[in-house]
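Hey team,

Filing this mostly as a record. A colleague (T.K.) asked me to run one chain through the structure pipeline before their review meeting, and I want the input and output archived in the tracker in case anyone asks later how it was produced. No errors, nothing strange. Just documentation.

Input sequence:
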Amino acid sequence: GHRTAFREAIARAAYSQTQWNILHAELSALVQTYRLHQTATYRREKLRVAQQLAQFNQALVETVQRQMQANQASVADVSMAEVENQATIQQLAVSQQDLIAAVTDLRQQIGVPEYADSIEPSGPLRVPEPVTPGDEANLIRVALSSRPEIQVAAAQLASARSALRLARAD
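Output structure:
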């Protein structure tokens, strides 16, 4: 009678703990995916800016070279423009590698194999708006009650209490 009830309570608590562990793992994976997506999106935009800057600096070098041929710019001006151009070309290469690394991390996170078509984030990942607004205290209570690690601890506590009762009954 009592022993069976205690064993059932232990089993229910263990099952609940497992469910919350799974939810915690799913939420962690979702958060990590979101972070990797945002990183890839940011790096894609950074690469776009680096490409524009490289084009601008290349055009600047050509302009300063024409000015030097017309005796309107010095050799030092051309040299400075070329040094700046080389720096932007190097930054462009770094930005390209950063984007490749970010997309690779995102692919691994979501399980897209290397041999699949190339993927790239197409825009910001939007989080849906909350369906039901509520007061701050209620939102905090809901947030705390939905934290998987808190639920795991509660399930472990219930399991330990049931095990203690079973031990006392024995």
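Quick notes for T.K.: The mean pLDDT is 82. The two ends are 12 Å apart (CA to CA).
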